[in-house]
Amino acid sequence: MSQAKTIHLHDYTAPSHHIVHTDLTFEIFDEHTLVINRMQVRRMDKESGAMTLHGEGLTLLCVKVDDVKAEGQFECDAEQMVLQCDKDEFVLQVVTKIYPDENTTLEGLYRSGTILCTQNEPEGFRHITYFIDRPDNMSTFTTTIIAETSRYPILLGNGNLVETETYAEGRHMAKWEDPFAKPSYLFALVAGDLGVVSDTFTTMSNREIALNIYVDRGNENKCDHAMRSLKNAMKWDEEVYGREYDLDIYNIVAVDSFNMGAMENKGLNIFNSHYVLADEDSATDQNFMGIESVIAHEYFHNWTGNRITCRDWFQLTLKEGLTVFRDQSFSADMNDASVQRISDVKALRERQFVEDAGPTAHPIKPKSYVEINNFYTATIYEKGAEVIRMLHTFLGEEKYRKAMDLYFETFDAKAVRTEDFLWAMDQQGGFDLERFSRWYAQERTPTLKVHEHYDGVKNEYTLTLQQVIPANVKGEKQLPYYFPLAFTLLDRDGVALQWNLADKRQTLLDKGMLIVQEEEEKFTFTEVTTEPKLSINNNFSAPFKIEHDQADYGFLMQFASDGFIRYEATQKAAMNAIDMFVENGEIDTRYLVNFAAILEDESIGLEAKAFMLELPTLSVLMQEQKEIDIAPISKALNLLKHALATRYKDTMLTIYQQFHKPENSALDAQSMGERAIKNAVLSYLMVLEDEDINALCVVQYENSVTMTDRIVALDLLENYAPDLAQDRLVHFYARYKENTLVMNKYLSVLSASEREGTIDRVQALQNDPVYDVKVPNLVRALIGVFARNAVAFHAPTGHGYAFLAEKVIELDALNPQIASGLTTAFRSYDRLNPNNKALMKDALEMIMNEKEISSNVLELVQKILDV
Ligand code: PHE
Ligand code: ZN
Asked: Could you identify the atom of ligand 1 that is nearest to the CA of residue 294?
């Protein structure tokens, strides 16, 4: 068992040495790669007679100090080298041998298909050579790559290409130089035989940047959207943040085997091909949106992450929360802002709220960790983005921009902390820094209880707000938050009412935006001429759960002016209806009636409307249960769907016919909205198990030119008309079996299926020739999706749990990061009903009892079992 060492933020000390410049040579051979690493070292701590370098799994060939063999001067163990050296400045040369073909962890240098590539965040570089592999050690790098020309015609590194040479025996060399100092986690190298799509971008100061997207040959025609997104992102960052690109070249490489979405290596992004390749035949609208946002995200890191980086990994949200906020803002500007907001909040609830409610909850700035790879979480990223968004709200666009400018000016080329970022924000004032900082230090989702009182005689309206702050994972009390709360008071027709705030000492950020700071607070409004209807937390101004017993969701579904609130109201109303059914078996007829307010309202944008028509997912409903029990909520959900489909069959069919345009594959908002809305109504109609509707679905599968339409049809057939699904699944497989990205979708449809027997089919699919346990996308598509299929995974037999445990153990031996990703499905353990809990316990113990379990998986299982 790997030793589980806990790393604490408060133990941080600056490194004793600084590697000022790093000159690397990679000699790539068939069986191994030779890494010659020459480091210009400066001693920072004059007291220190030893330099410690990280290094794992390396075959060490030679160590020299100032070109003299350092015999007897150093010692190595499994994790580091300690070099005795009293010099203030010296050149340390380390030569190591590594075996990328045997590397299944996908960190360090590894092979993806025919391509050799790297992944070094957070601690991959130590698998390449000995180094001070921490982000506060910023170094300039030159990279020389030497390899066989025919196998590796393309050789890429960070920065600018400065030299190439052809050698004897069919080998060649490329030398890259990156003038910007960076931490080792941003180092990258790629060698392979790749196709390329090129373009240029002219920056605001008129510099021409060469843009290249490298992909497997044959995929060049699937890069248009990625390239367009990149150029849009570059332009947007200039316009909105005043940030210009700083190198002459920007390279993106798409690889099929990648643990995450993509990586922002300086000037050489490496992407999961899922976030690059797309055309109408193989990618869904959601895929297109995903590409736009991830391309932008990695590009935005160039300033928020690379130029200004993290001092240590506890600061991860400094770059990630901020960069997610930036990519969300970008997508909102490129598309419909309120749709973007709905989809971001939906994702936050489905992923981050779940994490925050379970045993692995942590603040966006954790205080300790065992395995840093386990902290690339929805909390660090998405909740982190919500925290930045609140700052943006407090400061307003103009001051926020000034604060960002100051941040860039002050900390450029430095490795800093979240406190430094907050300092820059605070220079513009507008918020209480000390209280606001609690968002960084505390965990778990807070609840805001809302109580209203209206006095019709005095025309006085009072809003009582109570923050319910849960204790942290350790059971310690946490403090109330400081946050902006957007609200509107509406009259019966949905028109905003005028009011005055009675107590002038209370703070209003803006008309319609309260600043809340106490555990309990009362706001009194005067001159409110009629009893208002309250719309609260508009646009999700703060990441709270709202408990508002007096809310009139029927009214808000109809009248809220804020698209987000209308969506909220549909979700809350549906949740109440589901609760009611679970409690007394009755269908909430008022809800059925109110549903028309959305379905029949032609003024709502189609994409937003599709979101509003969706019922809450089982993942969201599970969170509301005291004791998780899937069967009753799944039954209620299906019956409610059935009741809605029955009642609105005709309207839904009309909408379907109106917007089903099988030939249209355009990506504008209207076209995407048309696909979204007609697929939303189709997913209701299919519940009716009506022959004519089944036929519509089959025709959609057969006639539509977009993957969006075809995969929806396939999924619906699989769930509601499996006999009809059979032939189409066979057809789909035959058509796409060479396209692994599409095969991910095929596997996901089958593993997400809620009909009987899914687990058996998933198990059988592991032997399918398209499946490969070494490719993370395929594992996520088959096993990961199964683990999120609540019906199948939480089956009362416990077979889902046992199967996942087996897979975690098997994968852990290959790729601990992917194994720990799968393990997160067990986080609901503590809240399960007794039967499921006992069965899950067996599965978790099976993992615990494994002798060779990684610290990644172990950390999670221990937290889940609370041992
Ligand atoms: N830094 C990457 C991003 O935010 C994510 C990542 C982390 C990728 C670790 C690989 C490994 O986009
Ligand atoms: Zn990122």
From this structure: 12
- The residue among 817, 818, 816, 843 whose CA lies nearest residue 828 is 843
Q: Which residues pair with 447 in a beta bridge?
A: 468, 545
Of 636, 646, 639, the C-alpha closest to 578 is 636
Kindly give the distance from the C-alpha atom of residue 403 to the centroid of ligand 2, in angstroms, as a whole number.
21
Helix crossing, 834-848 with 799-812: angle to 10°? 20
Take atom 11 of ligand 1 and give the residue whose Cα is closest: 121
CA 619 → CA 103, 392, 506, distances in Å?
35, 30, 38
Torsion sign (Cα): 347, 350, 353, 359: negative
pLDDT band at 1 (very low <50, low <70, confident <90, very high): very low
Distance CA 292, CA 283 (A): 13
Please enumerate in sequence order all residues whose Cβ is within 8 A of that of 151, keeping only pairs 6 or more positions apart, or say none. Answer: 114, 192, 193
Each residue of 507-549: pLDDT tens digit?
A: 777 779 999 999 999 999 999 999 999 999 999 999 999 999 9
Q: How far is the CA of 291 from the centre of ligand 1 (A)?
A: 15
Report DSSP state, residue 42: E
Instruction: Report residue 720 as tokens.
Output: 């509601």
Q: What is the dihedral of CA 415, 420, 425, 426, to 10 degrees?
A: -170
Q: Which residues line ligand 1 (CB under 6 A)?
A: 119, 121, 259-264, 297-298, 320, 376
Cα–Cα distances (Å) from 279 to 257, 492, 664, in that order, read 20, 47, 13
Query: Residue 208: beta bridge partners?
Result: 202
Beta-sheet strands, E only, within 99-148 = 108-112, 115-119, 139-148
271, containing H or E segment: strand 268-272
The CA 384 to ligand 1 mean position distance, Å, reads 15
Which ranges in 98-247 belong to alpha helices (H)?
224-241
Atom of ligand 1 nearest to the CA of 258: 10
Mutate to test the pocket of ligand 1, among 121, 327, 328 (most ligand atoms within 8 A of CB): 121
491 near 535, Cβ under 8 Å?
A: no
CB 471 within 8 Å of CB 498: no
Please give the single-letter amino acid code of residue 652.
M
* Cβ neighbours, 10 Å, residue 297: 26
Q: Is the pLDDT of residue 504 over 90?
A: no
Q: Count helices and strands (H / E) in the chain.
A: 30, 33
Catalytic residues: 298
**Closest by Cα among 853, 791, 786, 865 to 820:** 853
**Nearest CA-CA partner of 680 in 592, 608, 621:** 608
Ion ligand 2 neighbours, Cβ < 5 Å:
320, 323
Among 184, 293, 376, 777, which is best to mutate for testing ligand 1, by the most ligand atoms less than 8 A from CB? Answer: 376
First to last CA, the chain: 16
Q: Which residues contact 728 (CB under 8 A, 6 or more apart)?
A: 698, 701, 702, 713, 714, 717
In whole angstroms, what is the distance from residue 662 CA to residue 135 CA?
Answer: 50
3-state DSSP percent of the chain in helix, strand and coil, to 5: 45, 20, 30
Please answer whether residues 804 and 843 qualify as being in contact, where contact means their C-beta atoms are separated by less than 8 angstroms: yes
| Residue nearest (by alpha carbon) to ligand 1 atom 2 | 263
| Dist CA 854 CA 867 (whole Å) | 16
**Span 264-305, pLDDT tens digits:** 999 999 999 999 999 999 999 999 999 999 999 999 999 999
pLDDT of the residue at 719: 98
